[in-house]
């Protein structure tokens, strides 16, 4: 995070895309993807007004959460979002320390997160990850499995089903980006039609946030455009240690 101008530039891209595609800019939340960034960089982003952070490595995230906590200096809440793929042996830490989880793809993980969510905390905000490009190697559920998993999550009292997330195959072509993201927004609308009261469509990263907003994203996950290049995970998380 070099300056507040960097955040303003990203927010400017969001606002401009919202206007261009007839959406309300207020309807698009900015999730700052802070994986591979230092505690100092996150603290600076907090001073500049950001409050929602995305991490994809549990241990790296827990170190940061321990330092930074769940409240900004002005006592407004800080939200921690787990955006990585879920390993069974990490569900307890995710359930205990995060506010949101974006990558649910198996009933088994949903059950574990539900069972391990401490009862004094609010229900864990939960998104189902969709395998947008239907490649076997990518994580996420295929489109035909979404309804079953959605019903499962809805029935779990310590999870709150909020919507969908996806990571399309990279493309520089705006129309191709939109075509892939539309798979997600169509599914999102299908779930709503079937009676799910969901409000979050997590899609769009530094290189496709405009296409994501065009297709109805309500949360964009932005890393490099905000923070610049990432360090390798787990190297020098704390520059002062
Ligand atoms: C790293 C990451 C991002 C951010 O990617 P950028 O291209 O740096 O904006 C978004 N979503 C997920 C799931 C990620 O792992």
Features:
alpha/beta; 8-stranded parallel sheet; binds pyridoxal-5'-phosphate; 241 residues; single chain; 8 strands; disordered C terminus
Helix content: 25-40%
Q: What is the H-and-E element order?
A: HEHEHEHEHEHEHEHEH
Strand content: 15-25%
Any low-confidence stretches, pLDDT <50, length ≥5? Answer: 234-241
Write out the distinct hetero groups bound to the structure: pyridoxal-5'-phosphate
Shape: globular
Mean pLDDT: 93
Structural class: alpha/beta
Can you offer a commentary on this structure?
Helices cover 39% and strands 17% of the residues. It is α/β, with parallel strands linked by helices and 241 residues long. Strands 7-6-5-4-3-2-1-8 form an eight-stranded parallel sheet. Helix 2 links the parallel strand 1 and strand 2 (52-55). Helix 4 crosses helix 5. The protein starts with a helix and ends in a 14-residue tail after the last helix. Residues 33, 35, 56, 83, 167, 205-207, 221-225 line the site of pyridoxal-5'-phosphate. Pyridoxal-5'-phosphate is lined by residues 33, 35, 56, 83, 167, 205-207, 221-225.
